[in-house]
């Protein structure tokens, strides 16, 4: 029997276990940088298989190496396992048991499929060429992200290529999406505090209203994208929080605003930062308020290696996986991903597996009602497994 067929059969047989693992993780989520119990659960799975886990970074990240014993390429497969600070509203038998914490982005699914794929590859390792490094990464959701410290600790030393996959509730289940080159946005976050002088609403001339200053700042920010970056480029600046709560008859002394920046071209990053800082300083000078800004340039634009990504997609097409009904260029994706740090270090490819629950249903990522069609787990495992065999240059029988 061909190696590809063995891989597919073993993955299909393990689908119920894949779903069981995903549901356990979903019921017991932990937020970024606090995934102690999750990491212990994953490590126990590998220890029960007789496989060694090795810690990397300053969080709970670790790797498992599957060495074929034959010379060949060195490939890494990565999945993230952190959850979000969101209260789940879904009425599921395996809904989150942790108040205000939820796997609302699908990282439980990423982890479950990769665990079963890793076990299957280990079962077949004598027929492989080279080495597969399984990377279980924490803290994708929160800057600075879990990838950076793992990289600093040498997690990709000796690795040739890195592959990652994200389930997508916006894509139909059965579909595999991809995009060459710039695949996901880069990101920055900032906090601005305006401090004026508080007072009574009936005597505004004796005060200095921080709310007015903050409001002008929000309005002026709308010119950053429309007037300061190339119309053929892509960027966004969003104020997601304006903390100006007070009394109806009191002038606020201080307000704090939190903003989000997205970009698709790293050359635009400094322009956006400079313009936001310039507008904040201008508001400070205009209204005579103190300005304090904390600006965090974090996740880079995720750059897919074009040749590698095309090879990955060709291998999935060639595998003729019955559960995959569509493979398409989905275009650049709006969210940011700290997988981008891996892609800066090594030629990498990040693809997508549709997990829409039903046509027309909307359960977006990071929402309290996020849900996935669990059929996507087997699809993800088979897609990544087929790519792994192709990249390890496994000869056909």
UniProtKB/TrEMBL annotation:
Gene3D superfamilies reported in the protein's UniProt record: 3.30.70.360, Zn peptidases
Boundaries of every Peptidase M20 dimerisation domain copy: 184-281
Annotated SUPFAM superfamilies: Bacterial exopeptidase dimerisation domain (SSF55031), Zn-dependent exopeptidases (SSF53187)
Cofactor annotation remark: The Mn(2+) ion enhances activity.
Cited Pfam families: M20_dimer (PF07687), Peptidase_M20 (PF01546)
Record-level Gene Ontology MF annotations: hydrolase activity; metal ion binding
Residues annotated as binding Mn(2+): 105, 107, 141, 166, 366
Transport found in the keyword field: no
Cofactor: Mn(2+)
Transmembrane segments: none
Organism superkingdom: Bacteria
Entry keyword set: Manganese, Metal-binding
Name of the featured protein: Amidohydrolase
Organism for this UniProt entry: Lactiplantibacillus pentosus
